[in-house]
Amino acid sequence: MSDMHEHSVGWSRDTLIDEQPAPAAERGVVRWMRANLFSTIPNALLTLVALWCLYQLIAGVLPWLANGIWDAPSLSACREILQGATGGCFAVLTERWNQLLFGFQYPSELYWRPATAFILLFVALAPVLFYKVFPRSMLIFTAIYPFLAYWLIWGGSILTPVCAALGFVAGYLVYSRFITQSFAIGFFGGIAAALVFWWLTGFFNFTGILALEPVDSRNMGGFMLNLILGTVCVSLSIPIGIALALGRQSNMPIIKWICVIFIEFVRGVPLITLLFVANVVLAYFLPPGSNFDLILRVIIMITMFASAYIAEVIRGGLAALPKGQYEAADSLGLDYPQAIRLVILPQALKISIPGIVNVAVGLFKDTTLVSIISMFDLVGMIRGPILASTEWNGVYWELLSFAALLFFVTCYGISQYSQWLERQLNTDRR
Amino acid sequence: MTTLSDPPRESFRLSMLVNDTRYRSYTFQFIALVCVAALFAYLGSNLVANLRAAGLNISYDFLGDPSGYDINQTLIDYTSQSSHLRASIAGLLNTLLVSILACITATIIGVAAGVLRLSNNWLVSKLMAVYVEMFRNVPVLIWIIIIFTIMTAVAPAPSAFRGDDPDASMLFGMFAFTNRGVYIPKPLFEPLGWVVLGVFLISIVGAILYRRYATKVLYDEGRLLPTTWPTVAIVLVPAILAYFILGRPIALEIPELGGFNFSGGITLLGSLIALWFALAIYTGAFIAENVRAGIQSVSRGQTEAAAALGLRPRRIMNLVVLPQALRVIVPPLISHYLNITKNSSLAIAVGYMDLTGTLGGITLNQTGRAIETILLLMLFYLLISLSISAIMNVYNNAVRLKER
Amino acid sequence: QTLSDVQDRGTLNCGVTTGLVGFAAPDADGEWSGFDVAVCRAVAAAVLEDQNAIEFVPTTGKTRFTALASGEIDMLARNTTWTFSRDVDLKFEFTGINYYDGQGFMIPKSLGVSSARELAGATVCIQTGTTTELNLADYFRRNNMDYEPVPIETNAEAQQQYLAGACDVYTTDASGLAATRAAFETPSDHVILPEIISKEPLGPLVRHGDNDWGDVVRWTLNALIAAEEYGITSANIDELKAGTESPEINRILGTEGNLGEMLGLDAEWAYRAIKANGNYGEIFAKNIGESTPIGLSRGLNAQWTDGGLLYAPPFR
Amino acid sequence: MADTAVETSKPAQMQVSDEVAIQISNMNKWFGTFHVLRDIDLTVYRGERIVIAGPSGSGKSTLIRCINALEEHQRGRIEVDGTVLSSDIKNIDTIRSEVGMVFQHFNLFPHLTILENCTLAPIWVRKIPKHEADKTAMHFLEKVKIPEQADKYPGQLSGGQQQRVAIARSLCMRPRIMLFDEPTSALDPEMIKEVLDTMVELAEEGMTMICVTHEMGFARQVANRVIFMDQGQIVEQNEPEEFFNNPQNPRTKLFLSQILGH
Amino acid sequence: MADTAVETSKPAQMQVSDEVAIQISNMNKWFGTFHVLRDIDLTVYRGERIVIAGPSGSGKSTLIRCINALEEHQRGRIEVDGTVLSSDIKNIDTIRSEVGMVFQHFNLFPHLTILENCTLAPIWVRKIPKHEADKTAMHFLEKVKIPEQADKYPGQLSGGQQQRVAIARSLCMRPRIMLFDEPTSALDPEMIKEVLDTMVELAEEGMTMICVTHEMGFARQVANRVIFMDQGQIVEQNEPEEFFNNPQNPRTKLFLSQILGH
Ligand SMILES: Nc1ncnc2c1ncn2[C@@H]1O[C@H](COP(=O)(O)OP(=O)(O)OP(=O)(O)O)[C@@H](O)[C@H]1O
Ligand SMILES: Nc1ncnc2c1ncn2[C@@H]1O[C@H](COP(=O)(O)OP(=O)(O)OP(=O)(O)O)[C@@H](O)[C@H]1O
Ligand SMILES: [Mg+2]
Ligand SMILES: [Mg+2]
């Protein structure tokens, strides 16, 4: 084109140049390595350091994994088999597998029950988590699930959870009968109906009717306990969190301050102190003679803890809604409960889901703290009975890595889901 | 204003408490207040009844009693004859110590990991991603226990340093890494030594002033003074000179293996180190994500515009990217500091005597005063948290002012 | 009223330690056993006619008193030292002593220490939440020695620390030391120093002010002790039940007198308590005696007739 | 902008009755210490179409928001359809169900379909069975010419369509009075016309309307009174022709010159 | 859009010298395996105003970003003002301080005031004392007609004002060549004109400019050469009149019909 230095002359290309392959240095492994690993000298050094770290890590872990012993009755037996070679004694996992998962007191012939409950948990969660994929009718199962899971895990007569569920149904029926008239009548009527129903059913004795062998909550342990605490507390804390968030947004100063103080107080203290409260103090505040067992007290405190955090997440969601939504609802004549229920909350909750999931992950990780107040969750099992036993005294790495792995898989899965959901919501919003 | 057109002042009717917007908020607030009061009254009456049944009372008198136990690491004078209150304060200081150390380390780790994760070195950025995901998704308690186990089960016992041909030896002859902790030399100051320290501190101020001056010169005269080497020189040279001129007034007390243990020098307890590093690495993973998000929040266009103006990469970082990224990074950073402080209560799992270990641990055990100690414990933590949030608010407001 | 509560409930809530081999520890199947556990079982057998009708509530040093005070447990059978302030200030009732203990030290043989007086400068692992810390502080102060305490929450972790060499010495009640040492791979590498630095009378305790229940626990324990003294064992008890010459044995076993009725129980209460796990001597031998890995000798815990301190008040 | 509305002669059936729809007398409102509305007196008869104009911040929005109690006024009297607006919640409810309101930013509920947006209030406030509410809603959606969008979500519609849905949503409550707060100012020029057309149609049916707008073409065509506000007070009111051709007040003149100027 | 720029005859003083400002020969660039720029040959003389047009994705932005080394090219030669672009950091610095660039999205630094935005590079790169840099900056801010905004922050300005600041910021480095990458395409129509006016003024002063834009009015008025790119290659170039009235290449024709059609 150097012929066109007379730049006033027009010029047009007749034949297009075809695409050409990039020069060798721009293609393939070499280019990739050059661009991604060795682009500058410091970068190359960094790569070498990283490679060295990686090598050290693999060199350390690989033989330990590869030479692992999966079948031995005790640590000393393991050591004998290994004859001084490096290798993990994973036999402790196979040997104590059930204890790690279910604790040491859950009757072993009943393991299928929590296992079933666990599997069904996914079925119950699926329509909530992937609300676009699964039919809405599956939500019915989600509603049934808590009662079913209770029955499976704790056992006892099926009529107990059925009555509990029927109480909710009764409450809901009354609620939906009166809700169109007034929220207050519907809401309190519903609660009253449920309470009356439960009170009435309290007169019957269900023992033995369609009963599974009952298991005390004291006997829950292992990873199962973490899962129970995690799911129960998160699900209970969402409604409380919503109430707190609404309260904090309210323009009634007293209600607002009650919520603010509660939220800030709970968020300002470590979970462990709340667990101490559950462990050593709460009993003093309960009516004399009542006997809440530890797991229940812990659930109360963790739920309080989680609801404060969830309230903050939901408050964010509420704040993100434009004021026009409230005004539009008002101008259509919807009253406050209706506006909240029909217009505000559905939107605010949707915005808050990723935040709630993050809180849930954090909370699930925090359930391990119950090991400090002598409950035998996964970590408690490891720190307590298993490491204390004569056979397995000293197998730290295998047990701790197992616990870490279990939590990693669960939490990583959930947080990946939350990220996926966040992207989904972003595209939804157009 | 003619009162005629005003709505007639209706006389007050009871139904207005529910139906009238003016009164109904009072009604609801009153109901809420009554509910809360009732709840507290109920809990309180239970408490009183339970205490009476058990023949106990609530009293903080025990705080003045001698605690009777020893604490292995205190920042203040403390013996087993000191009061429980003093033990709690020693614990509080230990909490603050480990929190501050962990905050600093977590920031360093987090910033490094966050920046490296954005590096165009594929391997490094992937490694950092693995680090972040791995640490974020496993409970901090497990990390604390793992690191503590590394400390106790992997590091050599002090006895390994004994003998003619010991299994372990001290680093530079000064640092001993044992499973009880790390022993490092302790500077011993003669009177003149304090002068050297003073000189050193003044030099640091001097270095800061110099950098200010360099910027001023650039602004006023358009000369860019070198900063890196002069800073190093200003910080080090006077102190070193003073050290030698004054006749080496600072000696090092090097830890030595005594009867059972190393003695002399400064001891960093194994439990402190475990807690410190576990908190730092765990929180560092979260901070790394924030740093990454902060830097990414500065659009590529900003960097390109700065580059097109002829700025060099380091200046682009300092003048354009960082000031913008910091606004995004700092608020979550501070809430991570809060988390570190709260998580430091897990010290109890490794026997580090922080606030939870002293007040909420041994004092509680010894006195049996559960309600009192736990209330006090929560109060202490609440105070720390509230002060940190207050700082956060001040910072946020300061930044917001600059923005608009 | 605890008695009627327990009877209504049908189970006894018994607080035990979270795990100390020989005294109270769950085995691989989650079945609790041990010296303290046997006391619980005896009480359950006496009151509920079923030694397995027990809920074992693991407690730590921190939680045990609240658990008892709040009624979560009916009795605490955990190595708890009988002290003045616990009895008086914390409002508990010690119902007797089932083990005379004292705090001691364990140290690796390789350190070549033979007396606690040589421990100046040592790092000491303590299981927190007992009187141990206080005794230790007192002892070292009295002897003008330095030490570095390493407080640890559970026995399992203390053990781990001690074995890894993170502390030179492990201190707790001598019985606990023996039990801990028994769980080591090579117990002979560790010595328990001769000094006992404190008196640690351990016994079951109940809440203040519920004397009926306190009596049940107290006399169940006494029945176990007396049974050994009189030679009632789980083997010969059925024989003796048929009637013996000794009026005391007859009164214990309910064939004579109405001691059970006075306690609010039936006549066979002590019979069941002893039948459950044997008399004190049998329980001792089975759980912590010399033939077990723990290998404690009777020492102070021998019957008064054998030069020990065990001395059951008369059953009449 | 001023000429986007259809310029035809005023529809014949636009009649104003003598019945009073809204009576505002001596109304004052403060935001904190700021006196937004000062001594407002305004009587609107049934069937009237009133356009309110005025510079930004003059209190136009506040005025009409006071009418359906979205804002509380502090002094004076507002009577809507015979009901005196007081702080009694029943009164407020009555008035709100008589008065429909359309906002600048539509404020449709994004999580509900168009149809659900329209039936929400009838079902929950008027307690109309769902199928009937659906029927009414479809009727009004046809009227605003978007029945085919009934099952879409607001986000999938253009601004003009959304505003028409907002009008339909208000109409579904069968209000006797409609308030419009700058219904076209957030719209692209192409879409303004479709919304104004809908409003003109509504006006032709005799709906009482108060409309804050700067669409002077619309005002000319539809309004039977134009009110000019400034600094929280009604400065001038007149029939549209008079108002535009012969403004009395200097502020009105200034304003008109600005708004018609470009 | 095409007619927002002022349509006057070309300014008299727009003269093109024979000195070469930019010489690109046989330049090729790949993104991975994708061949973005193919055999580009282009000579720009000092004082020339070149407009680059072409469909989206044709490589226009990439081409001008190669000129000031924001993108690396893989083959061929780029010479700017006598300096050959190599990977030597000194060369890149020289070239970047000769060449100013204005982006589509302004890319002002939001944490600095307008004045600081303009003085940042002069102080840190050119090492000009602050007070002098301030003076220069005010001079150029006056030129783009917003001296009064000097102490505000970018977020407080309208898009058009921001883009003018961006131009001023580049000018403060006293570049000999200016590159514009669709400087008006992120702006509202009202603001396009004020930015184009600034650019016209710049052109009149004889600045060498390469401008990617679809503002054909601007091209007609200011450019002395229009370059049409497609699929990474220069397909046609000509004087604006010829280019618009008599395009040679079918692709150009197609493109022009699209862009002028609406
Ligand atoms: N919630 C509020 N709190 C305090 N002041 C307010 C509030 N709402 C509006 N104002 C103030 O009241 C005055 C009138 O506001 P209003 O919205 O009624 O004006 P407007 O005439 O509708 O203006 P525009 O044409 O901009 O919509 C303004 O000065 C505004 O700043
Ligand atoms: N960093 C990059 N990595 C990979 N491909 C890129 C990159 N930047 C641009 N491209 C691709 O190179 C091609 C040319 O991009 P360029 O931005 O130069 O087009 P353009 O002509 O400026 O288009 P527009 O008018 O949309 O700005 C496009 O197909 C684009 O997808
Ligand atoms: Mg308005
Ligand atoms: Mg482009």
From TrEMBL, chain A:
<protein>
    <submittedName>
        <fullName>Inner membrane amino-acid ABC transporter permease protein YhdY</fullName>
    </submittedName>
</protein>
<feature type="transmembrane region" description="Helical">
    <location>
        <begin position="187"/>
        <end position="211"/>
    </location>
</feature>
<dbReference type="InterPro" id="IPR035906">
    <property type="entry name" value="MetI-like_sf"/>
</dbReference>
<keyword id="KW-0812">Transmembrane</keyword>
<dbReference type="InterPro" id="IPR000515">
    <property type="entry name" value="MetI-like"/>
</dbReference>
<feature type="transmembrane region" description="Helical">
    <location>
        <begin position="223"/>
        <end position="246"/>
    </location>
</feature>
<dbReference type="InterPro" id="IPR010065">
    <property type="entry name" value="AA_ABC_transptr_permease_3TM"/>
</dbReference>
<feature type="domain" description="ABC transmembrane type-1">
    <location>
        <begin position="223"/>
        <end position="418"/>
    </location>
</feature>
<dbReference type="GO" id="GO:0022857">
    <property type="term" value="F:transmembrane transporter activity"/>
</dbReference>
<feature type="transmembrane region" description="Helical">
    <location>
        <begin position="394"/>
        <end position="414"/>
    </location>
</feature>
<keyword id="KW-1133">Transmembrane helix</keyword>
<dbReference type="Pfam" id="PF00528">
    <property type="entry name" value="BPD_transp_1"/>
</dbReference>
<dbReference type="InterPro" id="IPR043429">
    <property type="entry name" value="ArtM/GltK/GlnP/TcyL/YhdX-like"/>
</dbReference>
<dbReference type="GO" id="GO:0006865">
    <property type="term" value="P:amino acid transport"/>
</dbReference>
<keyword id="KW-0813">Transport</keyword>
UniProtKB/TrEMBL annotation, chain B:
<feature type="transmembrane region" description="Helical">
    <location>
        <begin position="266"/>
        <end position="288"/>
    </location>
</feature>
<dbReference type="GO" id="GO:0043190">
    <property type="term" value="C:ATP-binding cassette (ABC) transporter complex"/>
</dbReference>
<dbReference type="GO" id="GO:0006865">
    <property type="term" value="P:amino acid transport"/>
</dbReference>
<dbReference type="GO" id="GO:0022857">
    <property type="term" value="F:transmembrane transporter activity"/>
</dbReference>
<keyword id="KW-0029">Amino-acid transport</keyword>
<dbReference type="InterPro" id="IPR043429">
    <property type="entry name" value="ArtM/GltK/GlnP/TcyL/YhdX-like"/>
</dbReference>
<feature type="transmembrane region" description="Helical">
    <location>
        <begin position="374"/>
        <end position="395"/>
    </location>
</feature>
<feature type="transmembrane region" description="Helical">
    <location>
        <begin position="23"/>
        <end position="43"/>
    </location>
</feature>
<comment type="similarity">
    <text>Belongs to the binding-protein-dependent transport system permease family. HisMQ subfamily.</text>
</comment>
<feature type="transmembrane region" description="Helical">
    <location>
        <begin position="96"/>
        <end position="119"/>
    </location>
</feature>
<protein>
    <submittedName>
        <fullName>Putative glutamine ABC transporter permease protein GlnM</fullName>
    </submittedName>
</protein>
<keyword id="KW-0472">Membrane</keyword>
<feature type="transmembrane region" description="Helical">
    <location>
        <begin position="344"/>
        <end position="362"/>
    </location>
</feature>
<dbReference type="InterPro" id="IPR010065">
    <property type="entry name" value="AA_ABC_transptr_permease_3TM"/>
</dbReference>
<dbReference type="InterPro" id="IPR035906">
    <property type="entry name" value="MetI-like_sf"/>
</dbReference>
From TrEMBL, chains D, E:
<dbReference type="InterPro" id="IPR017871">
    <property type="entry name" value="ABC_transporter-like_CS"/>
</dbReference>
<dbReference type="InterPro" id="IPR003439">
    <property type="entry name" value="ABC_transporter-like_ATP-bd"/>
</dbReference>
<keyword id="KW-0067">ATP-binding</keyword>
<protein>
    <submittedName>
        <fullName>Glutamine transport ATP-binding protein GlnQ</fullName>
    </submittedName>
</protein>
<dbReference type="InterPro" id="IPR030679">
    <property type="entry name" value="ABC_ATPase_HisP-typ"/>
</dbReference>
<dbReference type="InterPro" id="IPR003593">
    <property type="entry name" value="AAA+_ATPase"/>
</dbReference>
<comment type="similarity">
    <text>Belongs to the ABC transporter superfamily.</text>
</comment>
<dbReference type="GO" id="GO:0016887">
    <property type="term" value="F:ATP hydrolysis activity"/>
</dbReference>
<keyword id="KW-0813">Transport</keyword>
<keyword id="KW-0547">Nucleotide-binding</keyword>
<dbReference type="GO" id="GO:0015424">
    <property type="term" value="F:ABC-type amino acid transporter activity"/>
</dbReference>
<dbReference type="GO" id="GO:0005524">
    <property type="term" value="F:ATP binding"/>
</dbReference>
<dbReference type="InterPro" id="IPR050086">
    <property type="entry name" value="MetN_ABC_transporter-like"/>
</dbReference>
<dbReference type="Pfam" id="PF00005">
    <property type="entry name" value="ABC_tran"/>
</dbReference>
<feature type="domain" description="ABC transporter">
    <location>
        <begin position="22"/>
        <end position="256"/>
    </location>
</feature>
